[in-house]
Structure formats: C-alpha cells, structure tokens
Amino acid sequence: MAVVSLKEIVDAAFDERYGVPAINIVNDLSLEAVLAGAVEARSPLIVQTSVKTVKAYGSKVLFGMWKTMTEGIEVPVALHLDHCPERDVITDCLEQGWNSVLFDASTMPVEENQRQTVEVVAEARRYGAHVEGEIESITGVEDGIGSDTESHRQSLETAVRFIETTGVDVFAPAIGNAHGVYSARPDLDFERVTQLVDATRTPIALHGGSGLADDQFADLIARGCAKVNISTQLKITFMQSNLRFLRETAEPTDKWDPPSLFRAVRQDLVDMTGALARKFGSAGKAS
Predict the structure, then answer these.
(1) Longest Cα pair distance anywhere in the chain, in angstroms?
(2) Alpha-carbon distance 73 to 56, whole Å?
(3) How far, in Å, CA of 251 to CA of 204, rounded?
(4) Residue 17's closest CA among 252, 270, 204, 213?
(5) How far apart are CA 230 and CA 286, in angstroms?
(6) Are 129 and 167 in contact (CB under 8 A)?
(7) Is 169 an active-site residue?
(8) Is 124 left (phi over 0), alpha (psi -120 to 50) or beta?
(9) What share of the chain is helix, strand, coil (3-state, %, to 5)?
(10) Which of 3, 121, 252, 284 has its CA 20 to 30 A from that of 99?
(11) What's the structural domain count of the chain?
C-alpha cells in the first residue's frame, strides 16, 4: 500500500480489466479530499498535477503537501505530472519525487516526439519513475495546454513503433475523446484501443473522461484503458460546491465561516472520488 509506482497500479488494473481514477487536483483541499475518497472506497488512485498547478504552488511545496498527506495511507497511490511539454518542468518534478510523468510532445513531428520521449524515459528510470506518452494531441485545451482543433490521427503502425521504441509504460491515444465538456455523446474509436493492446500489451490512458457515458467507460476499460483521467469533473464539482454553499449561506444566515465551506466542498469531492472508483471498477481493489 502507500505510495507505489504508476506501473504497479496500472499493470494490476490492466490485468484485471478495471480502471483507476487519475484525478487532477487543484489545491490542498482537493488533494486531501480525493485521497480520502480513495481510502473510503478502498481504491487505488493516481493523483495528477497540471503544469499550471505545479507552477502556481512550486514543485517543492506541492510535493511537500503530497508527502505529508500520503504518509501512512492505506491504499496504493501515485503522483503523476499531466500533459507536460516542458522538459525542465519534468526534470524538476522528477527531482522532487513525482513518480510518473506525461511528456506531451504531441505537437512535434512523430520522429522528434519519439526521440525526446526516449530521453525522458531514460531520465525517469534514473528516479525509478514511469512515463506516459502520446503522439496525437487530445482535442481541447486543459490548463492552458492543447488545442480545440482535432489533430491528425497517426496510423496503428506508427503508434506501435512509438510505444515499442520509447518503452513508455502507458500510452494515450486519440480515439475521438476530448478534454473539457462534451456537447454531445462522442463517437469513439473503441477498436483502436483493442488494436493497440493486442499489438503491444501496453496499458492505455483514457483522456477526456469527464462526461463519457457509463457504457463507454465500461467498454473502453474492458479493452485495456487502465488509467482514466478526470480533470474537468473535479473542477466543476469544486466550483459548483463552493457556489452552492455560498448561496445557501448568504441569504438565510449571512454567516461567513470558511471551515464550514471547506467541509462541504471536501465532502463533495470525497463523494465524487468514491463514485468514480465504483464506476470504473477499482473500488475494493485495495482491500
């Protein structure tokens, strides 16, 4: 239990065909809440930090929060740097203690992406850390990274060559998924996940998980999506919880007690995490 490698978490999920919530936190309250939700659900958890959040807090402060809050934790957890195109930020986080990174070089030509990802994998291995890779930008802007224009989808052969050459531990394909809020049910390329898994036996990361239908989650997880990214859903839950509490407090009572606000928001995030673990099949897997 406690802090373990990303590979340990995703390999178990891949073998047993369940998904592990990989949740982007935004501050100390959200970090503590998703950890508490995972413990309550007896679920493994991948905590993700965006480059924006790392820069806002500083890697040393953010990792200090992580280290303190995970001391003695009773479920397997890993700390992952999400969508990072900046090599210096990757180095900084690995030096601090992150045990997983997504090197996002998807805007580069595949050959250059592949060359640099090989270097990032070698760097991560020196710290005992693991790497997620991608060769196509996932549609949508998340924390200032990405584009709303759908990128060209590479061939299966190109993706397989990238995975095998770089040695990435998790691969994030573009399958019609998108960051942010879906305006309609997305048309997903389920078969591409099966083809990648059959060809490489590599766990797949599902990006743009917020807002997918339950049947879509179930299908993709059964095919090998062992890591399920959730960012927008946490942000919406966090903001709406704050807004709801403040509205309910302002009008009838006009009492302003920040700890009460924090408790309410925390509980909503704990409940969200537990619901995701049950939906993805990871609840109880840490027992």
Answers:
(1) 63
(2) 26
(3) 47
(4) 204
(5) 20
(6) no
(7) no
(8) alpha
(9) 50, 15, 35
(10) 284
(11) 1
In a domain, 287, yes or no: no
| Residue-by-residue DSSP string for 208-273 | --TT--HHHHHHHHHHTEEEEEESHHHHHHHHHHHHHHHHHHHTTT----HHHHHHHHHHHHHHHH
Contact 231, 22 (CB under 8 A): no
Query: What is the residue-level pLDDT of the chain in tens, covering all 287 positions?
Result: 589 999 999 999 999 999 999 999 999 999 999 999 999 999 999 999 999 999 999 999 999 999 999 999 999 999 999 999 999 999 999 999 999 999 999 889 999 999 999 999 999 999 999 999 999 876 544 555 444 455 567 899 999 999 999 999 999 998 876 656 655 576 688 999 999 999 999 999 999 877 788 999 999 999 999 999 999 999 999 999 999 999 988 877 777 899 999 999 999 999 999 999 999 999 999 97
One of 11, 28, 82, 169 is an active-site residue; which one?
A: 82
Q: Is 1 part of any domain?
A: no
CATH number at residue 253: 3.20.20.70
Domain range for residue 59?
Answer: 6-280
CA distance 141 to 1: 34
- DSSP run (H or E) holding 282: none
Rounded CA-CA distance 119/208 in Å is 27
Taking the C-alpha atoms of residue 66 and residue 31, their distance in angstroms, rounded to an integer, is 8
Residue with tokens 């709406």: 240
The residue type at 59 = S
Give how far Cα 221 sits from Cα of 3, 201, 273, Å. Answer: 23, 14, 17
Q: What is the DSSP string of 34-98?
A: HHHHHHHHT--EEEEE-HHHHHHH-HHHHHHHHHHHHTT-SS-EEEEEEEE--HHHHHHHHHHT-
